[in-house]
Amino acid sequence: MRLALLAAALLLAASSATAADTRIPAKALEQAAQLRERALADDTGWKVTESLTTEVGPRLAGSEADARAVAWAKAKFAELGFDRVWTEPVTFPKWVRRSESAEVLGPHAQPLAVTALGGSPGGTVEGEIVRFADLAALQAAPEGSLAGKIAFVDYQMTASRDGSGYAQGGAIRSRGPSAAIRKGASGFLMRSAGTDNHRVPHTGITRYDEGLTPVPSAALSIPDADQLGRLLARGPVKVRLAIDAGWDGEYTSQNVIGEITGRSRPDEVVLIGAHLDSWDLGTGAIDDAAGVGITMAAANLIRQLPQRPARSIRVLAYANEEQGLHGGKAYAERHAANAGRHLLAAESDFGAGRIYAFNTGAPEHARAATRQIAEALAPLGIEYAPGKGGPGPDIGPLAAKGVTWAWLAQDGSDYFHLHHTADDTLDKIDPAALAQNVAAYAVFAYLAAEAEGDFGSQAKPAP
Amino acid sequence: MRLALLAAALLLAASSATAADTRIPAKALEQAAQLRERALADDTGWKVTESLTTEVGPRLAGSEADARAVAWAKAKFAELGFDRVWTEPVTFPKWVRRSESAEVLGPHAQPLAVTALGGSPGGTVEGEIVRFADLAALQAAPEGSLAGKIAFVDYQMTASRDGSGYAQGGAIRSRGPSAAIRKGASGFLMRSAGTDNHRVPHTGITRYDEGLTPVPSAALSIPDADQLGRLLARGPVKVRLAIDAGWDGEYTSQNVIGEITGRSRPDEVVLIGAHLDSWDLGTGAIDDAAGVGITMAAANLIRQLPQRPARSIRVLAYANEEQGLHGGKAYAERHAANAGRHLLAAESDFGAGRIYAFNTGAPEHARAATRQIAEALAPLGIEYAPGKGGPGPDIGPLAAKGVTWAWLAQDGSDYFHLHHTADDTLDKIDPAALAQNVAAYAVFAYLAAEAEGDFGSQAKPAP
Questions:
Q1: Are the Cβ atoms of A223 and B111 closer than 8 angstroms?
Q2: Is the pLDDT of residue B261 over 80?
Q3: How many CB atoms sit inside 10 A of residue A162's CB?
Q4: Whose CB among A350, B54, B354, B415 lies 3.0–4.6 Å from A410's, allowing a Cys bridge?
Q5: Phi and psi based region of residue A273 (left: phi greater than 0; alpha: psi -120 to 50; beta: remaining)
Q6: CB contact under 8 A, B54 and A231
Q7: Do B427 and A197 lie within an 8 Å CB cutoff?
Q8: Partner residue opposite B427 with nearest CB, options A223, A283, A423
Q9: A321 part of the active site
Q10: What integer pLDDT is reported at residue B9 of this predicted model?
């Protein structure tokens, strides 16, 4: 009985590979193979990444450099010869970092390397440190037990190719401060959500739950968290944490968009992109100038083909991803009604390591086409990973509107050595790995744009 | 004729291995073999290093932490059970660092990670950057050509086991500012004398030649030097450099000395040691808490033997090495008349990497004994390196007074990744490599203290 059911299911699966299925034409596959090889020899991705990190440098959302980054992106799309370049406004609250410091007080007095978490208020607090091994331990502390004290969540993230250690590290950053406030804490410190061993603390956005009074919140560098742990092993430790930072009105930045116009279905687009903003500590090289370079260069290679692909290739440089996916949300809202015209959408926002896996969120009728794209990517060392992956950060809001995601999984083994630190600079990027990314994005975007049939994107009715 | 001379010389050399030669007794060699194995299993070196870097942390000469470091060293010698512990005053000018920053001005505005060089005056200067590939290029600039400008020496040190790349990097730091002032510069920047790629600039002392008016002088982190080079490739770059630092009177610190008293010739000593002070940016782990841990632990292992060695083992924690060998000079002055009673002297001040070579500056009559010590060190992976080496920094002044140096060469391949940076913290030390160092110092010091005969030390007549 079970075997019979299985056989029926298999038959159904086989029969579903019908003429109605989405397919990539053979001619497009041939073209993609050439595109792939040209991309590996092309240094446009590197040059774009170098240009953004050098000429603009750090570009915190809402800062003076945010406007320069927008101007840079418009000029770069134009300089590369994209068919259309435009911007769409993105408005968000502006957070400003002015200064931050921390020091151990008393007989072992010494400075600690810290960085304020994005969204932290200013203020100077002194208090005894209470250490917690992880977020759950903090959440389990008795009510009121942290009154007048500084909570310290000392969780050590582990490095992995898929960055899965960030689930816990990122959760501590997002939810730790609110949990600490609920227990009465006057300040919050965490071991950076990182995997390096340098004196470069990792910043990143935090959020305070409604109804709570925010307290100064910061991350210690990994060696400083080690040091604080060693000091705590000797007895009580008192720390002074001083932050000058805070929210300062609203700011309107821009999503910057460049498009290669499709030859036969210009209103249908393959959306690729990356975020234009960065944290302020480094020059935002792996996060996310690399993604901007990869996707701009990939589309540019498609532009250089003898003829435009059937559909348009849209490259989106998102405003303010770091503080809450503001650019991704704005684009999704604005284009929700046209979700069905976005064939596939992918964001490159996990550094500059080689891509090792590919998948899409497409339904059954486009699985064969997904596999065809994966096969075209295979010479780049990329595996087809059915059942895996998901939308990149800024694609999430669009996926919620009905757009099918594509997933080009980057090797993130080193990503959290650098993520959100002063160390996120151009020298950390391997130009050959970057070119492999460009090749993958070019092949993927081109083939999706040439597909006969869709990948299941469909505007969802407004709730 | 030449052959005959050679034969005569060889005969002389052979005959010089007479009963008058210094020798290590067989019993001492047996004891040393046991000492070596015990040292490899002992974690005292690690514990001492951990204690100093954790409890005192950064200990800039003349700072509040300098006094804490002196108190720590006295207490640690006592706690370990050294036979004698005392201090000797060391007076030096006190330099204070308060703040430092630099930023690119104009269309590519962005901050640069800098640290003031030790000895730099305070001041804020703005000027166009003039880049030089090395010190010679700066020295060759036309007179007056840097008026109102900031000199930038962009020399990239290379890493090597023996640290030889530091000769040029260190010279730029010491002599670059004066060279820049002579050409009219209002400020001085250098690519850090380092071999890492992190946003941690390398500080270190500089000196301004007599008659020159010092200008603010700082080192850029390696990635920032790269960045400045990329910006300069695009056109003129203006930078603001702001330093608040300067000299502030005199300070008296202490050389802290612990001794294991010799059983038969207590007035004769084998001198080992390391410097107690550190720069202020890191916790002075590899520079030079490791050396303090290595030498304290080595003497402590000798203390634990069934009987004291013939001569005394003296461990010296030098005051203020970083700003001009003040502790080494003070000790040499004070003990010059007793130079002949210092059998051999060695300083551990090149990190915590494994020791790979050994030699002494002993004359011919003690070469055989030097070789015997080297043979006892060979199981630790240490080679006898006749004709190589020299005195460690604080041993230089003593060697000039007639004391024979010993050289235990540490692998410094990674040393300039960390040297004088915020990244010089405990986590960078490999406990197993540290134990190998302890074993080498224990074997060396014990055998020297048991030698029958001397190593050529002899007080030089006052000039």
A1: no
A2: yes
A3: 17
A4: A350
A5: left
A6: yes
A7: yes
A8: A223
A9: yes
A10: 45
Task: Say if residue A7's pLDDT is above 50.
Answer: no
Where would I find the H helices in A204-356?
Answer: 222-232, 290-303, 326-335
Of A68, A230, A427, the CB nearest to B50: A230
Residue in chain A closest to B201 (alpha carbons) equals A199
Q: What is the CB neighbour count within 10 angstroms for residue A441?
A: 33
Do the strands A150-153 and A187-191 form a parallel or antiparallel pair, or are they unpaired? Answer: parallel
> Of the listed A100, A321, A322, A450, which one is catalytic?
A321
Q: Which residues of B touch A (CB under 8 A)?
A: 50, 54-58, 64-65, 68, 104, 107-111, 113, 197-200, 222-223, 226-227, 230-231, 234, 282-283, 421-423, 425-428
Q: How far away is chain A from the Cα of B425, in angstroms, using its nearest Cα?
A: 7
Predicted pLDDT of residue B359: 98
Would the pLDDT of A148 be above 90?
Answer: yes
Contacts (Cβ under 8 Å, ≥6 apart) of B445? B270, B272, B298, B299, B302, B313
- Enumerate the domain spans of chain B: 20-83+261-450, 99-247
Give the C-alpha separation, A432 to A39, whole Å: 11
CB contact under 8 A, A111 and B231: no
CB B308 within 8 A of CB B446: no
For the segment(s) B99-247, the CATH number from 3.50.30.30, 2.60.120.260, 3.20.20.70, 3.40.50.12500 is 3.50.30.30
CA distance B259 to B87: 11
Residue A175: band (very low, low, confident or very high) from pLDDT cuts 50, 70, 90: very high
Distance from CA of B170 to the nearest CA of A (A): 23
Residue B24 has pLDDT above 60, yes or no: yes
Count of positions (residues) in chain A: 463
Tell me how far apart the alpha carbons of residues B407 and B395 are, in angstroms, rounded to a whole number: 10
User: Which residues share a beta bridge with A258?
Assistant: A85, A315
Instruction: Identify the bridge partners of residue A407 per DSSP, sorted by sequence position.
Output: A359
A97-246 domain in CATH 3.50.30.30? yes
- In this prediction the ipTM stands at 0.94
Look up residue B2 and give its amino acid.
Answer: R
CATH (residue range A20-83+261-450): 3.40.630.10
Mean pLDDT rounded to a whole number for chain B: 95
Integer-rounded Cα radius of gyration of chain B: 24
Give the largest CA-CA distance in chain B. Answer: 78
% residues pLDDT > 90 (chain B): 95
Nearest-CA distance from B325 to chain A in Å? Answer: 24
Do B199 and A111 make contact, defined as CB atoms within 8 angstroms? no
> What is the average pLDDT across A226-234?
98
**Span of A2-6, B80-84, B160-164, B411-415 with lowest mean pLDDT:** A2-6
Q: Which helix (H) or strand (E) holds A347?
A: strand A342-347
Dig out the tokens for B458 from the structure: 């002899």
pLDDT at B63: 98
Nearest CA in chain A to B234: A55
Dihedral angle sign, alpha carbons of residues B276, B279, B280, B286: negative
Task: Tell which phi-psi region holds residue B291, choosing left (phi > 0), alpha (psi between -120 and 50) or beta.
Answer: alpha
Give the helix/strand (H/E) hosting B128.
Answer: strand B123-132
CB proximity list for B423: less than 8 A, separation 6 or greater: A198, A199, A223, B196, B198, B200, B282, B417
